[in-house]
Write a structure and sequence with these properties.
This protein is α+β, with helices and mostly antiparallel strands. It has helices spanning about 1-15, 75-85, 220-225, 235-240, 290-295, 315-320, 355-365, 395-410, 420-425, 435-440, 440-465, 475-485, 490-510, 555-560, 600-610; strands spanning about 25, 30-35, 40, 60-65, 95-100, 105-110, 115-120, 130-135, 140-150, 155-160, 165-170, 180-185, 200-205, 245-250, 300-305, 320-325, 345-350, 380-385, 415, 525-530, 565-575, 580-590. It has 2 domains: about 20-145, no CATH class; about 150-160 and about 190-415 and about 505-610, Amidase signature (AS) domain (Amidase signature (AS) enzymes). Helix content is about 25%, strand content about 20%. InterPro entries: Amidase_dom, AS_sf. This is Amidase domain-containing protein. Keywords: Signal. Pfam families: Amidase.
């Protein structure tokens, strides 16, 4: 009696602790994860008698909705095999048609070599079409995630997005070499609409945006272990989720979004692997995981990065994908770790300019000037700045792109020297001071002074309180920068803000002003390039990190707050001393338009793709495709 009483108490307690969180299995050599949540329950009369209902095995099932006709299934399945990487013919062994006119339960062959049992569910609820696994004992249908190996080391956390807006860690692992496993849902479950323009778009998120229920590292192991999971999702990411996007994981960044080189600088975590060329080029930073993943994985559509000093444009350049630093202030950066609020922006990396435009419209909402439904008139002037000579391979690619763009827009190209323009038209009180001197300390002062106050000081204080006064480990790059910032007077921040404002007002009035015609928006386009296929091995021990002083063309957008985006336009060969073969690295161009005219850039990219001037970059060792080398 005593044992029975104890057991009756213990069983509910154990049941409370044992909560199923999904199951991993393999079908024809492809690894899948079954969500623990039940999509729907299949009536017992629809489960064929050949399936044992007392079995613990799961059965692959295809659900076909939208009143599809039975005769159309061979064509439908053929299209599914092309558009979806989760569904496979083995799921057609049991096909359940929902509300299909004239449906007859039968056994037939839709696909050669596979005998399909067809069941008709006339009064079915709304269930997304696609692959499922059936628990025949309970009749429960479970959505399917295909499991992929994160071989480029781009992700920090693999997550599942719940319908209630929270996230959980993916409790599954596929074979891989010291790497995470990422789960992606079937594309067939989603239909893009005006209200859900990103339905089913798979997204990786830089690990400085909060996701409800997910712990963050900010690129630092001590941070990850010190702080609890976030209690709210960052508004910038929530905007994407509301538009139908599916978050599949958080992605690596250089520590606290400071610039770092692989090998010695990345200490807390290993830098992601850039797949281009010989596979051992640096991924740039700080949105390193974002760039490497978009260049590596055809199953990933979009990556959310941040750009303060080039953290999207750098990785996009060396990865050969599209990327944008938007007009400053287009979306709230609440629940996002800051580097410098005066310069921080949220943007994207992707291979597809159509998704690029839709994602920007979804994230930036009413602050975004979209041209998707307007007759677009492009700027009448094209400036080029800092292009290599036309006698170099890189220069020839860049100049050819500029000429093709000018032909498309029926305009001319003007070589532009911003230093000379500043000297002749800058504010009289400062025009005699070269930009290299006037803005030399501006970026360094802003990122150090602001991040020390907003990140370092509370982090060190919280860590000390939790660890008996100890200090946390911080990578060399942020350590050097913070030390310099702490050595400077507070007045340096005021000087930096003032100089940035002076430059911003001049640039937006004299160089890239808005056009009076709202259909054109920007008076001019400015082209420059920061990534010209240069060789940058990840295994080189470089000089220790330093404070980022100085002035380059990439900082125009940082200080002016105007958008600056990256287009992949070609690649150049180089002789790899790793593979002892000729490999290829991307060449990209940066394109700037007036502040607030962001929508022009993806729209123009779409037209350039349509004209054959730009090509959609592929994943792999080259922007044309090819194997990834290890």
């Amino acid at each position: 009696m005593r044992f029975t009483a104890l057991l009756s108490v213990a069983v509910p307690a154990v049941a409370e602790l044992l909560r199923p969180n999904g199951i991993s299995l393999s079908l024809n050599g492809t690894n899948y994860f079954l969500s623990s949540s039940i999509q729907e329950t299949l009536p017992t009369n629809l489960i064929p008698s050949t399936i044992a209902t007392n079995s613990l095995a799961f059965v692959p099932v295809t659900i076909v909705g939208n009143n599809a006709a039975q005769d159309d299934l061979p064509k439908l399945f053929s299209s599914w095999a092309q558009k979806d990487d989760v569904w496979q013919p083995a799921f057609s062994e049991l096909v359940v048609l929902l509300k299909s006119p004239g449906c007859k339960s039968t056994t037939t062959n839709f696909i050669a070599g596979i005998r399909s049992v067809v069941s008709c569910w006339g009064k079915a609820p709304e269930i997304p079409s696609g692959p499922y696994f059936l628990d025949p004992y309970r009749g429960s249908l479970h959505q399917v995630y295909r499991l992929y190996d994160d071989f480029s080391g781009s992700f920090l956390e693999s997550i599942l997005q719940s319908p209630d807006g929270t996230f959980q860690t993916l409790p599954a692992h596929a074979p891989g070499s010291s790497s995470l496993t990422i789960g992606v849902p079937s594309r067939l479950y989603f239909t893009r609409t005006k209200d859900k323009p990103l339905a089913g778009v798979r997204v990786g998120v830089k690990d400085l945006y909060d996701l409800k229920g997910v712990k963050s590292s900010r690129g630092n192991r001590a941070w990850y272990n010190l702080y609890p999971a976030a209690n709210k999702t960052a508004p910038a990411i929530q905007n994407l989720i509301d538009a139908g996007a599916v978050i599949v994981g958080t992605q690596k960044l250089s520590q606290f979004a400071n610039g770092e080189n692989p090998t010695a600088d990345w200490v807390s975590y290993l830098a992601p692997f850039n797949p281009r060329g010989d596979g051992y080029q640096g991924p740039s930073s700080s949105s390193s995981g974002a760039g490497a993943s978009i260049a590596s994985y055809p199953w990933l559509d979009l990556a959310v990065g941040s750009d303060t000093g080039g953290s999207i444009r750098g990785p996009a350049g060396v990865s050969g994908v599209f990327g944008n630093r938007p007009t400053h202030g287009l979306v709230s950066l609440d629940h996002v770790m800051p580097l410098s609020p005066k310069m921080d922006t949220a943007g994207f990396l992707t291979r597809d300019p159509e998704i690029w435009g839709a994602a920007q419209a979804a994230m930036y909402k009413e602050n975004y000037t979209t041209f998707s439904e307007k007759k677009t008139q492009y700027p009448r002037t094209i400036y080029t700045a800092g292009f290599p000579g036309n006698d170099t391979t890189q220069g020839a690619i860049l100049h050819q792109f500029a000429n093709d763009l000018a032909d498309l827009l029926a305009t001319n190209i003007t070589e532009y020297d911003i230093s000379q323009h500043w000297a002749s038209t800058g504010p009289k009180s400062v025009r005699d001071t070269p930009l290299t001197e006037f803005l030399n300390l501006t970026y360094a002062a802003l990122i150090t002074k602001e991040q020390i106050a907003l990140v370092k000081e509370p982090f060190f204080r919280d860590y000390a309180a939790a660890h008996d006064g100890r200090l946390p480990y911080v990578d060399p790059a942020p350590s050097v920068r913070w030390a310099w910032g702490e050595s400077q007077p507070d007045s340096i921040l005021d000087d930096a803000i003032r100089n940035k404002t002076v430059f911003m007002n001049w640039f937006n009035q004299k160089v890239l002003p808005k056009d009076k015609d709202p259909h054109r928006c920007s008076s001019s386009i400015l082209l420059h390039s920061e990534s010209t296929g240069s060789f940058g091995r990840r295994d080189v021990y470089r000089d220790p990190p330093t404070v980022p002083f100085g002035w380059t063309l990439s900082r125009i957008s940082i200080f002016s707050e105007a958008p600056d985006s990256v287009y992949p336009i070609g690649e150049v060969p180089y002789s790899s001393d790793i593979t002892n073969h000729e490999e290829s690295l991307p060449v990209t161009v940066d394109i700037m338009v007036a502040k607030g005219c962001d929508g022009l850039i993806p729209r123009l990219a779409q037209e350039l793709v349509g004209q054959g001037i730009l090509k959609i970059p592929k994943t792999g060792g080259s922007i044309l495709g090819g194997e990834v080398l290890f």
